[in-house]
Amino acid sequence: MEIEHICANCFAFVSPARWGLGYKLCLSCGEKFAKGEPLPKPKKIPLTPEEIKVANEIRQIEAEVRKKKAQKLSEQIERARKKEKQKEWDRLKKKYGEK
What we know:
The protein has two domains: 1-45, no CATH class; 46-99. It has three helices and two strands. The chain has helices at 16-20, 27-35, 49-96; strands spanning 5-6, 13-14.
């Protein structure tokens, strides 16, 4: 079974020989890119309802992970602030004597 290589821009098939040389664009897109012409907008790949569902689940999981990381960072910052306040309080108590 031969692996099919897809153009990074238009999703057309790229020949294995061209791909092997390191080209990730099809001949048409590669020629336009070399001439400095604007590349055509990429085609949209139609997704099945199942693929859309999976993509949405992935986005939701990524959002939850970002939220948890932000919450953890916020907690770490709060602990550091409390620690600094305690250090300052201890320094003042030591300087002026505990009353």
